[in-house]
Amino acid sequence: MRILAISGSLRAQSTNCTLLHAFALASPNTEVTIYGELALIPPFNPDIEEARSSIGPVAGFRTLIRDSDAVVFSTPEYAHGLPGSLKNALDWIVGTGELYGKPVALMNASSRAVFAQASLREVLRTLAHLIDEAEITIDQMGKKPSAEEIAANSEFAAEFRRSVHALTEAVGRLEITA
Q1: pTM of the model
Q2: Fewer CB within 10 Å, N side or C side of the chain?
Q3: DSSP state, 43?
């Protein structure tokens, strides 16, 4: 199974990015691609959407989503909402539908980021097939463990396995109904 992991943070040392890297490490039988070009996606503009659809960062983003079996998002919360860069990237795929019907899971590196999670959940309900059973919160607020340390934690590794299992089952169910 191919999973695309997208962090809503542009920070190099983001706990959300670290969480996604830990997810990849703890899922050795799953191909996890960490998307790292969110900052390169230009502001969404419907007037230039067609020109951006076949080249550049928007085309690459769309292709990665289309070629994945499932997508996992982990995002920080800014002023009780989603980071603008993540919402912007999602705006680029509303009209082209790469996420439509695709299994999606949310991961969270802070138990306090409830508004961002709710906002992301609402946006994704219109674009994708949200798999609630695959959702994970591994609170790392105020902590700075490495991805390797998180992945090596047996409790967290079990959560990652549970999430992958739920996504795998969802992919199977959706393929049967397609």
Answers
A1: 0.94
A2: C
A3: P
Name the H helices within 10-55.
15-25, 49-52
Q: What is the largest CA-CA distance in the chain?
A: 49
Tokens 């909402």 appear where?
81
Q: Which of these, 94, 83, 111, 110, lies nearest to 6 by C-alpha position?
A: 83
Distance in angstroms between the alpha carbons of the first and the last residue of the chain: 17
| CATH architecture, domain 2-177 | 3-Layer(aba) Sandwich (3.40)
Structure letter (DSSP) for residue 89 = H
- 73 close to 108: Cβ distance less than 8 angstroms: no
Both tokens assigned to 178: 């397609």
CA-CA distance, 104 to 172, in Å (whole number)?
13
| Cβ proximity of 143 and 113 under 8 Å | no
- Please provide the average confidence, as pLDDT, over all residues in the chain: 92
Give the residue among 115, 158, 157, 109 at the shortest CA–CA distance from 137: 109
Angle at 107 between CA 106 and CA 112, to 5 degrees: 110
Q: Where are the beta strands (DSSP E) in the chain?
A: 2-7, 31-35, 70-74, 103-108, 129-130, 136-137
pLDDT per residue over 50-61, tens digit each?
A: 766 667 999 999
Q: Give the per-residue pLDDT at 120.
A: 96
pLDDT surpasses 90 at 80: yes
